[in-house]
């Protein structure tokens, strides 16, 4: 999965956990209202039963209703606590994910910059070599340019690495490394 997709899934999970916490909080508020009304009703019934206006048997039933609502509120608080822990965990996971992505991007950026710097250095080195070759070729104008180049093959064998002088049209074997030596024009003057 792409980083964007994984982050979206984490964001959705965080939003769902947050919504669950909000719903549980709203439900608790509703149950608190029901508890207040049920408790008030139980108190009123108890007063009426003490005055003999209602049967005494109705009071324990209403008190049992109050107990049920209180129990439901306690269960709801446990669920709310678990939902808040889950929400905090998911937020922590999202923060860690963002930090990891940031570190990965920074590492990739540094690697890319290193590659660019290395390529620029190689280019500068090649440009220097080309200028040097151009100077040698200019100094050797009028001379036999074939005499300025020497071709060698570096070949690995069981005995070790061998350097073999070859002609420009000789065939190479797989694994051979072609080395072209450019001799300065002064070397031709010394040979002649």
Spatial shape = rod-shaped
Strand arrangement in the largest pleated sheet: 2-1-3
What's the gyration radius in Å?
44 Å
Taking pLDDT < 50 over at least 5 consecutive residues as the criterion, the unreliable ranges are none
Q: What does it look like?
A:
A hairpin with a 2-residue loop joins strand 1 and strand 2. This protein is 71% helix and 11% strand. The protein is mainly α and 192 residues long. The protein starts with a helix and ends with a helix. It is rod-shaped and about 135 Å long. It has a 3-stranded antiparallel β-sheet with strand order 2-1-3, with no helix packed on it. The mean pLDDT is 86.
Tag the structure with descriptive keywords.
192 residues, three-stranded antiparallel beta sheet, 3 helices, 71% helix
Could you write a compact summary of the structure shown?
This protein is mainly α and 192 residues long.
SSE layout:
Elements: H1 3-50, H2 58-139, E1 149-157, E2 160-166, E3 177-182, H3 185-191
Helix pairs in contact: 1-2
């Amino acid at each position: 999965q792409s980083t964007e997709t994984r982050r979206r899934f984490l964001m959705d999970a965080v939003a769902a956990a947050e919504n669950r916490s909000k719903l549980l909080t709203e439900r608790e508020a509703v149950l608190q209202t029901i508890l207040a009304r049920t408790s008030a009703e139980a108190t009123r019934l108890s007063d009426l039963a003490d005055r003999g206006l209602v049967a005494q048997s109705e009071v324990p039933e209403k008190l049992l209703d109050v107990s049920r609502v209180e129990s439901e509120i306690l269960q709801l608080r446990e669920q709310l606590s678990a939902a808040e822990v889950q929400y905090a965990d998911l937020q922590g996971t999202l923060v860690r994910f963002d930090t990891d992505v940031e570190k990965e991007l920074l590492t990739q950026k540094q690697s890319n910059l290193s590659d660019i710097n290395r390529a620029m250095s190689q280019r500068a080195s090649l440009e220097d070599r080309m200028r040097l070759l151009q100077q040698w070729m200019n100094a050797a104008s009028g001379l036999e340019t074939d005499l300025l180049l020497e071709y060698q093959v570096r070949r690995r064998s069981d005995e070790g690495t061998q350097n073999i002088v070859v002609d420009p049209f000789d065939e190479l074997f797989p694994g051979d490394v072609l080395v072209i030596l450019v001799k300065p024009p002064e070397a031709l003057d010394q040979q002649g």
